[in-house]
Amino acid sequence: MAKGGIKVGDEVAITATVRRRVTEDRVSVSIPSYGFPHSIIDRTSTPKKEQSIELTGDVLRVDEKTMTVSLSPPVTVDISTVKLVTSYVPPKRKTPLVDKAT
Hints:
single chain; 102 residues; mainly beta; 7-stranded antiparallel β-sheet; 45% strand; elongated
């Protein structure tokens, strides 16, 4: 079972560390337990090197020790590096799936 009952569809947050500014509007970040470079669009603030930044996305897949989060592109990280922001609640049906018997 995932940490804290995190399941597919939940919104989670990952704390990443700023590595450097790539362009005027793009920042390179380091995500814990993710072995590839990742960059995000950040036009509003001026993050400094080694500053922590919080990335949020929806859970796409949950395994025993890892989970895949949609950060555009999907990122697979350890379950211990994420925290739950909002739990997914499926929409309620207005009409039943089965027609009424006549």
